[in-house]
Amino acid sequence: MNRRVLMLLLSGAASVPRVPCAQQKTMPVIGFLLGGKPGPEDALVVAAFVQGLSETGYVEGRNIAIDYRWAEDRYDRLPSLVADLVGRKVDMIVAGNFPAALAAKGATSTIPIIFEVSVDPVERGLVASFSRPSGKSHGHDQHQH
User: Residue 66 is part of which domain span?
Assistant: First the structure.
């Protein structure tokens, strides 16, 4: 994972809203949507994300929960996986690749979506522009910087 991707994920994680005590949820929940299978490559992405969260004061299981969903290389499963996350009312969705980002965008316009893609997100319809992304989506294109 390159440094810019990690910084993007960390900046999105830092914006996770704190949940007031009066609500049912005891801690914010991040939905982590990945298109692949749990394996060494995605394990590195997840480990870097969890480490980045801890560096900003969020520790999985203590003051933040992460709800993982894996499509296991069956991208046709992404819409139902993200629908499940939306139904669970996660506070943020982290999409691990372009198909996951598209599925998340198609499922919600109110839950913030953090994604990393190697394609132009404006050209592909993920965001309206870099300066003013539509909805609550925040993106990063590795080729633009």
Answer: 3-144
* Nearest by Cα to 114 from 23, 55, 2, 34: 34
Dihedral angle of Cα 88, 23, 21, 68, to the nearest 10 degrees: 0
Number of other CB atoms surrounding residue 74 within 10 Å: 12
Could you count the other beta carbons within 10 Å of the beta carbon of residue 75? Answer: 16
Question: 53-103 pLDDT, tens per residue?
Answer: 999 999 999 999 999 999 999 999 999 999 999 999 999 999 988 889 889
Residue 67: count of CB within 10 angstroms of its CB: 14
Q: How many domains does the chain have?
A: 1
pLDDT band at 132 (very low <50, low <70, confident <90, very high): low
The pTM for the full model equals 0.68
As a whole number of angstroms, the distance between CA 21 and CA 122 comes to 38
The label of the residue with tokens 């298109």 reads: 35
